[in-house]
Amino acid sequence: FKSCFCATRQTRNKMTMIKSTTTTTTGKNVMNTRSSSSSSAQNGCVASSSRRIRSNDTNTCHHHHHQSAVVSRSSRSTLTTTTTTSRNFYRNNNSNTNDYNQRRRIPTTMGGVSPLLSSSSCSSSSLTSSRVVTMTMMRRSVKNTRLSTTSGRSAAGENSSTTQTTTTYKRRDRLAQIKGNDRGKSKVGKTLELKGWVRSNRAQKDRAFIDLNDGSDMSGMQMVVLQEHVDENVWQLVAGATSEVSTGASIRVKGKVVESPGGKQSVEVLVDELEIIGKADPATYPLQKKRHTLEYLRGIAHLRPRTNTIAAVSRVRNQLAFATHQFFQQNGFLYVNTPIITASDCEGAGEQFQVTCLLNGLEEEGFAGAAASVAPQDVEKVEQKVKSQGDIVKKTKADKGEGNATKEDVDREVKKLLALKEELTELQSGSNTPQTSVKELPKLKSGGVDYEQDFFAKRSYLTVSGQLNGEIMASAVNDIYTFGPTFRAENSNTSRHLAEFWMVEPELAFADLNDDMDCAEAYLKHCITHVLKHCDEDLQFFEKNISKDNLRERLQNVVDQDFARITYTEAVEHVLSAKKKFEFPIQWGSDLQSEHERYISEEVYKDRPVIVRDYPKDIKAFYMRANDDGKTVAAMDVLVPKVGELMGGSQREERLDVLEKKIEEVGLEKESYWWYLELRKYGSVPHSGFGLGFERLVQYVTGVENIRDVIAFPRYPGSADF
Predict the structure, then answer these.
(1) Cβ distance 328 to 104 under 8 Å?
(2) Which of 455, 484, 451, 489 is nearest to 469 (CA)?
(3) Model pLDDT for residues 301-316, shown as the tens digit of each residue
(4) Burial code of 471-508, b = ≥16 C-beta within 10 A, e = fewer?
C-alpha cells in the first residue's frame, strides 16, 4: 500500500485525464464503492465497512498506478461516487426539522456529522474535483484496509486474500426487543432465556403465573409454570409453602414462547427452567404489589426505579437525551463538555454553591476562637430555639392533617428540632470545650478569608450554566452544544426547583435572535416527535395514571403547529386585558409569572406554544444584547401549555464597549471576565443560544408534576441521600 500510495501521489497530475478504456479495466481491480449511509455519517465517504481491497487488487493498483481512479460498481467510464450525508442519515420525518436542517449551515469538516463528498454524483468532466476525490478515497482505502487486514501481512506483496477482523458485541435481548412491534407474536415457538425481577406471582393448584419485568418496557411478560411440565424442585420454588419467587426477587427463566389465551398479552412463556438469582424477603420488601405515593418513593430512591412510574420516566428521559444529541449532531453542532467548577457567575444572581478546601479538617481539629466555657445566655438562646422549633413542628403536623403540608415537610422540621435538642444537650453537659489542636482560616489584613490560599487560589463555585464556556468554543469551531449537570443554591422547596439539574445549552455562531428562535422550535419539535414514536406505551401509562388528560394529543399539537411569536410588551398587554384575576399583578418591567405564561399559551393562543421576545433589560442577564430602543434586550422565552416557560435564550452582546459597561452596571468584577471580554476584542461575531432545563422537558412530556420525580436521585434543600 505504501508503494501504491506514493506512486499515486507522484502521478497525481496525470489523474486529470481519465480515459474510458483504462477506467473500465481498472474499475474491476481497484475498488467497489458501495453506498452506505451509516458509515458515510462516520467517515464522510463511501462505506468503509462494505469496502474490500483484495491483495490482487493491490497489485493491480501498484502496477497500474498511472491508471488509478475510483469507479462505480457498474465500471462505467464516468467516475461516479455516491454517498449519503449524515444529514440524510439522521434526518427525521418531521418536516419542521427538515426545514431547519436546510436553513442552518452544515460544516464539511465536522467529524462524524457531514461527509467529505456531497450526495450528488461527481462526473468525469469535473477533472479537478475528480483528482481530489480520488486521492481522498485512496488515502481512506489504504487506512481502512490496514485496519481490516491481519497484522504482519504485506499488503503490496501477497496475492492471498486479506482477512477482515471484526469484533461484535451483543447483549442478550431484553423484553422490549423480544416483543418488538408485534408484541412478541413473531417469537411464538422459539425457546428464550429471560432474566429480570418478579412483579407478582400467582400460584394456583397446578399452575403459577409470574409477571416478569426487566425494566425495558412497561408491561413485562407473563411466565406460565405448569406443575406437570417442570420438576418438583422448580415447582416448590414457585408454589411451595416457602416460595422464593416473590415480588422483588430476581430470576432466570428458560422456556418456549406460546400464544396467550388471555386478553392482556399476546404471548407468554411456558417455563421449562427457573432459577432464583437473588431473593427478596416478602416480609420486609418495601415495594409490594400496590400503588405507592411518589412522596413515599422519594424516601427509597434506591428501589423506586423498579416501579412503573419511575421506570417509565427513566425510559422517556433516555429517549429525550438520545433525541437531543441526534438533533444537534445532524445539524452540525459540536458537542463540548464545559467545566463544573467555575469562578464566574453566569446568571449574576449569586445563588451558587461555593467550592473550597479551606474547611477541610476544621471539624476534627477545631477552629480558632472556640469558646473556653459555656455561657448561661448561650444555653438560654438554644432553649428558646428548641421551644420555637417545637411550635413549628406542631403547626406543620396540623397543616399536614388539613392537606396543606406533606410528610416530607414534617420530617424536615422534626429533623431541625432534633438537631437543636442535641445542641442543647451538649451545652448543658459542658461538652463544648476548646479543642487542643486549633486550625485557623487564612485571613487577609482586612479580616476577610484569603482565598489565594485555597485550592484554586480564588473563590470557586459549582456552575449554574455552561454558556460562557460554550461561547468560547462557538467563537472558534462554530455551532456547539453542551449537555450536563448544573447547580443552584436556591433554598426553594417548590415542585419546579432542584439544586442539581441538567441543562441543554446550544450556542450558534453567526446567528441572531431569529436564528435562536428557529433552533429552539425545531429542537423541541424533534424531541417530542421522537418520544411520540418510541415511547407510546409509556406515554399511554402517563396519560392514564399521571396527567389524566389528552397528553399525547397535546404533544402532537406542539409538533403540528408553528409557534406563535410575540414581544414582551404584547404579552403584558394580553395579561392586563384578561378578564380573569391573577395571584401576582403585572406591569411593564416586571417578570412574567408562571400563571401569566400559562394564560398566554393556553387561553390567548389556544394551547399553542408561544415565543416571547424583547424583554426589559433590567430583568435579564448582563450578557444579552441590548436592543436599539435602550429599554429591552434580544432575549426570548418559549412558553408551552401546562408548564409555562420551558426554554430561555438570547442573542449575546458581541460589542466590547457595550458589554464592559453592562458588567460594571450589574456590579460584577470585570477582571473575572477578562477572557470573556477578549472574545469581543479578537474576531467577535454575532452569536446566540438558549438553555433548556432538561428535567422540565421530562416533566412536560410525561405530565409528572413534581420535578423531584423526573430525575433518579434528586438534590434539594435538606436532601442529598443516595
Answers:
(1) no
(2) 484
(3) 999 999 999 999 999 9
(4) bbbbbeebbbbbbbebbbbbeeeeebbbbbbbbbbbbb
